[in-house]
Design brief:
The complex is a heterodimer of chains A (316) and B (473). Chain A is 74% helix and 0% strand. Chain A is an all-alpha fold and 316 residues long. The longest helix of chain B is centred in the N-terminal third of the chain and has 25 residues. The chains are: A mainly alpha (316), B alpha+beta (473).
Amino acid sequence: MLSRTADHLYWMGRYIERAENLARMLEVNQNMALVPRTLETEEQAWIATLTIIGLIEPFKQKYAAVTPTDAMYFIVFDSDNPVSIFNCIRSARENARAVRGTLTSEIWETINSAWLEMRVTGADSMTAVDTAAFFDWVKHRAHLARGVIQGTMMRDLAWHFTCLGTYLERADSTARILDVKYHVLLPRGERAGGATDYYQWSALLHSVSAFEIYRRVYRDLITPRRVAELLVLRDDMPRSLHRCVSQLHTHLIAVANAQSAETVRRAGELQASLHYGRIEDIFSIGLHEYLTRFVGRVRDLGERVAQDFLVSATGD
Amino acid sequence: MSANAPYNEMYADDGGVREHYRRFAKWLSETPGDRVAQKRAEADTLFRKVGITFAVYGEEAGTERLIPFDIVPRIIDAEEWRKLAAGLKQRVSALNSFIDDIYHAQEILRAGKLPAEEVLCNEQYRPEMQGIDVPNGIYAHIAGIDVVRAGRGEFYVLEDNLRVPSGVSYMLEDRRMMMRLFPELFARYSIAPVDHYPDLLLENLRSVAPSGVNDPTVVLLTPGAHNSAYFEHAFLAQQMGIELVEGQDLFIDNEFLYMRTTQGPQRVDVVYRRIDDDFLDPLVFRPDSMLGVPGLLTACRAGHVTVANAIGTGVADDKSIYPYVPDMIRFYLDEEPLLANVPTYTCRRADHLEYTLANLDKLVVKEVHGAGGYGMLIGPAAAHEEIATFRERIKQSPTKYIAQPTLALSACPTFVAAGIAPRHIDLRPFVLSGKEVNLVPGGLTRVALREGSLVVNSSQGGGTKDTWVLGHA
């Protein structure tokens, strides 16, 4: 497969996933706002969200203060923000367009119509937008795109590179979403394990479609340790770090070439640490510390994938 | 060749329906008008859907127009096609011999059949190609020959397109559309299929691989997603199951061509390029080109890669060379041309120039290097001032112009705002040359949708029709 084609497919996968995860992350914030919050905690929650997705600096360059409407607009629609949901869908579609011949027509049509709809929705401000419905729309488009990819695509290199992009992005996103709780402080006077704390953890679970699963798996109170265990270590949880890295490892093996052995090894090592890891050990390091390191290792894998497959395959 | 009532593809002079259109005419009369209207609307919607994906290839919507599609097919009967196909094969064979000759022994110039300076001083002549042997001596692997019917129905070749002829995707899409909309018509007629064109093309490209390569790798080289014909490039690559590559995907190493793949460099043997010569190799042609592959010509010269169409074919489809094609057929094949040229006055010749200037109101004047219907004077339809401006331009640089009598292009019934009315058409069949010369029965029929207009180019408001070659049934 052409390196350029692989690159487009990989980024198509990443951008679809990123659009979805941005919507999920904003949903956490939205849901956390359902319990009464002071202006101060509200602002702090948005600073947390912007920090987690790495947009706090570009945001501050454009806006003097953090207000919910500005923050939301910046993350969702702002075309100046290269990774707004708007631009993620545009980029997914641009990448798909560049390799249209490699895709089934259903995949192209699904992604293209998502972009055409996005362009119509694209608003100048957040006031007229039903955000809950919009986040649902983004998630549905992503489900549809992934569904048509899984349902119509030949299981060849093209598919593997698309999946590589998807799982790499998802691993990164789940880690960041899980880290939201670290950044979102409890209101003054609230204790850990109290009502607000509970709402925050359950909002987090909802955002990764894990609330019902949590109930079924643990049949018990929501505790940070179990939430972390579910989203980090469980292999049967589709958005967990363990699941994402296992998939990543599998797809890396499928596309392996003469120079990718070290990348495969690092992915395998990370996979093994999740496979045999214990939640106690993670908590003794500290969840935030652990997630920060994890995000770093995923970034390293992403850079190595680019090096091994996407740019460097020249003869000279 | 007078400008009387044009030949009508469907109706004979006495108003009766021609034999090969009878079943269509019967179907049309039996089918309620609102159903036909509904089908036309459906065609419009379906094409708009394809067209939307087409249009968005430009940066934003609206930068590319949809090409209108007309549901009345252009029908050619079997016997007529047989003659036409034989003439096309003959013509393309001679053109290939000509290109091979002018880059080697130049026998035709020595024999004085055409002036050497017309060839050697032509901008499209590539001295870099002199002495390079290409597989099977084939240069124009894919040729789009524009033919028209005029006078009382005889075919004329209007133009040979030997560089990167496009439009074949419309031939295939138009057929698909007609089969989808009117399956009952395909049951009534035995219509020769065209959808194996991509297979033939791939076979053809593989047959001209460098010698010694058993299982050649073929790629399609496109200028990229922003090119107006990108849809066709992606479509053909997908249909053939070959890689659609851009210049940045390819590199030359030790006079071999490779593409960058996720598994490392992979050898490429045949390049079906859809990029003009000028942009193909920045080391030889335009140094600012980002679209080509530095060193490609050296790989060609070493015989390690076949470029289709070969570099330097443009000289043979130049309008200044066109008048000599019948002589080429006689010279290389020792045969009489089966297809006629349109009589052409080359303004570089004093007598022709004189005739042209005296008859501008009756002639079509074309720029020698023009294309796409731009820079053209249609005498009978032109205003006084327009003729005067052209007269001055021709006088200033006569070598830039040729003139031809205004042909009464044949007309085919076509849906227009007021109902069905005759509109002028042409035909572009695609001739493939490799180990043998082949073409699918059909081509792209273009139609000038404006009443009386003779310009069928899509850039000038032309549309397309499905082209049916009838089987023997």
